[in-house]
Design goal:
InterPro entries: KR_dom, NAD(P)-bd_dom_sf, Sc_DH/Rdtase_CS, SDR_fam. It comes from Nocardioides pocheonensis. By secondary structure, this protein is of the alpha/beta class. A seven-stranded parallel beta sheet has the order 3-2-1-4-5-6-7, sandwiched between helices. The chain is globular, with a radius of gyration of 17 Å. Helix 1 packs across helix 8, helix 2 packs parallel to helix 4 (about 110-125) and helix 3 runs parallel beside helix 5. It is about 40% helix and about 15% strand. Bound molecules: nicotinamide-adenine-dinucleotide. Nicotinamide-adenine-dinucleotide (NAD) binds near residues 18, 42, 60 and 135.
Length: about 250
């Protein structure tokens, strides 16, 4: 289900990483519904929405990322939009996670953004409508307990979004980000499944957001489609919260 404007992306080609599940699948669907040709780069592209083009790619593999990005341009003649959405979760304090766990998450959540952007930028510079949107998280700024590694990775994504925005704006490539709150996706279902009391944890996650519910993947997708599209032509270096007020309202209304 799309919030359209249908046709807004007619003729444009977009890459969505992690577009075979959850938020990424909703983004891929939204861009497709708005008229884009969409390539999904995912570890397992089987869940990519109908009408999009799936590529089996691990964003930790630089050569595979380059091959896929080159292939998208070879297939469709151009590249206009990149959505860096692929990401993995992690729980724990700094005492809990090993160096190897840190490296594994940063490889996907931070270096994945770097690799895909690096491969795409030479093509994006040729587009009259070039945009990158990085999917961060409320964890970048909220000081969430038991999320040290994940929060650090998303803090890096937010800093990277601003740095990339500054570096590439004069080349006509707009870089922005979204920071979702807790979104109802398989990612959160896995988190809940590992909780001692999943039902209690779900209620806690819902109550944590001032609007008292989980965010939907479609709400994040609408924000991404706005930021990557022509209506946001003067929006550069913005990181839009899609979190029911969690980051912006302090103290939270009770
Ligand atoms: P999800 O687990 O449902 O989907 C993630 C997708 O990324 C999967 O299809 C997976 O195969 C793919 N992926 C994972 N590692 C990959 C890799 N190395 N290379 C290529 N693809 C890979 O997760 P989601 O909830 O849709 O999360 C998407 C993004 O949104 C992530 O960056 C996540 O950190 C962020 N986010 C999620 C929430 C939430 O509450 N769900 C909140 C804030 C931010």
């Amino acid at each position: 289900m799309t919030s359209a404007p249908a046709g807004e992306y007619d003729g444009l080609v977009a890459i969505v990483t992690g577009g075979a599940s959850g938020i990424g699948a909703a983004i891929a669907q939204e861009l497709h519904d708005r008229g884009a040709t969409v390539a999904v780069l995912d570890l397992d592209p089987a869940g990519a929405p109908d009408g999009t083009h799936g590529f089996a790619v691990d964003v930790t593999d630089d050569a595979a990322v380059r091959r896929a990005v080159d292939q998208v341009v070879a297939d469709h003649g151009r590249l206009d939009v990149v959505v860096n959405n692929a990401g993995i979760g992690a729980t724990g304090t700094v005492e809990d996670n090993s160096d190897d766990q840190w490296r594994a998450v940063l490889e996907v959540n931070v270096l994945g953004v770097v690799r895909v952007s690096r491969a795409a930028l030479p093509y994006l510079r040729r587009s009259p409508a070039a945009a990158i949107v990085n999917v961060g998280s409320i964890a970048a700024s909220a000081g969430l307990p038991n999320r040290a590694l994940y929060s650090a990775s998303k803090g890096a994504v937010q800093a990277l979004t601003l740095a990339m925005a500054a570096d590439h704006v004069r080349d006509g490539v707009r870089v922005n980000g979204v920071n979702p709150g807790t979104v109802d996706t398989p990612f959160v279902e896995r988190l809940l499944a590992s909780a001692d009391e999943p039902d209690v944890e779900r209620v806690r996650l819902e109550a944590r957001q001032p609007h008292q519910r989980l965010v939907t993947p479609q709400e994040v997708a609408g924000a991404v489609a706005y930021l990557a599209g022509p209506a946001a032509a003067s929006t550069v270096g913005a990181v839009l919260a899609v979190d029911g007020g969690m980051a912006g309202l302090r103290p939270h209304p009770q």
